[in-house]
Amino acid sequence: MQYLLLLHANEAGFSNMTPEQQQQGFQAYMAYGEALSKAGALKGSNRLRPVSTATTVRVVDGKTQVLDGPYADSKEQLGGYYLIDAPDLDAALDWAARCPGASHGAIEVRPIWEMGDY
Amino acid sequence: MEGDEQAQAAADAVARRSYGKLVAFLASRTHDVAAAEDALSEAFAAALSEWPRNGCPANPEGWLLTVARRKMIDVFRGQNRRQMVSVEMQSIADVLAASPTDTEIPDERLAMMFACAHPSLDPGIRAPMILQAVLGLDASRIASAFLTSPAAMGKRLVRAKVKIREAGIPFRVPGRDELPDRLDAVLQAIYAAFSEGWTDPAGADVVRRDLAEEAIYLARLVAELLPREPEALGLLALLLHAESRRKARRTQSGEFVPLAQQDPSLWNTDQIDEAESLLHRASSLGTIGRFQLEAALQSAHADRCRTGHPNWAFVIQLYDALFALSESPVVAINRAVAIAELHGPAAGLDSMPSVDTDSRLAQYQPYWAARAALLAKSGAFARARDAYEIAIGLERDDAVRRFLDSRRSSLPA
Description:
heterodimer, A: two-stranded antiparallel ribbon, flat, B: mainly alpha
């Protein structure tokens, strides 16, 4: 099965870190990505720019509404994701627990809804 | 007509013996508990129409599994035709078709219980899921035991089954490193089922009394399948100890009898003996845990009441150990009561947890009842009366309410 690991964390946490801490943080994520890919589990991954760069779009009565800011305004923001392959939820939860983001935020684990499986 | 009855009796017998095993077999291969239950109930219906005509098959369990499996494969293939991508459904059908039916059906109930009590499911639905998937209890029966509406319980069960299937919750006994935590969820679910059954100790409510028996059945099953897990043995010992006193907990007229006033000759000694030997086996395995400690406490209480030898110092030690594990305010209350027995009511009251630090206690009947009893012993009758008042207001069992009321009335003015 495929799962999307959604990394939620307080964005301010990163900018408040010293450059050394930021460097350590990067390295932890690099190592995590490396481990995922060595295990053949990594399907895709990206880091997202902060929510201050987000724009939310919605079409109401045929009219496009564009709003500054993220869709959900919360204390912790979606900051990135990993798309992984895992035999079952336990395996996906194990990968989520190893993600550096699990220690300074929360990882939401969502099974991918396969095309045609309705 | 006679054939009908025979078929019915044979189907009932298989249902009792094999229901959970058959659901577990089908569900662990498809991850679809609901589809497995549906297919199996169709197979039982088919049995009731075919067995009277053609006689009961030599292997009724295998017959039911074959029919249920065919129904399930039909359902999955039927879904296939409407779908763009059929690989997954096809492979599920293949797995089902390839699994053996002529040989002994493997017992995968334990794996299914681990799926039903998975940490990713709401803790409150784990016990109902186990009761339904392993024992086949219907939603309305489970709902009445857990004091919710059948519709609400039905919805929550459906949601849990959808999550098991769609999130890919595995049907597997976890490995060594994970087992203690995950087993605890299974044991807690069984304990919750037992507690719901236990709230009607007179056994007037058949649904509830049966639930306690079903919980003991499940605890026995887990203890048999994991004979080297001390906590599994501890839970069964605990339930047997509690169950052994069922007859003594009420008078003939239905009045509540506290432990200290129970007649030990009414206790079921077979159950006590079994509990003791389980506890002994558990302790030889070398890892202490919550259920073993609680069973040991039940054992100590029973022993004191039977022999008349006070063992409060030992009881307090057990509560200390249990509190260190759980930090539960409920344990703290019982510990305070034991301390009062050994060192007097003032010491007991001092050891009581405070409503100020734990607001949940304000609505917890045993807290107010214990407090009232200690206040009464220390001579603070007015405050004892107030505490009894609150305890009575919080109790849902009529007999216990009457008992508390009689305690309150007997306080000196």
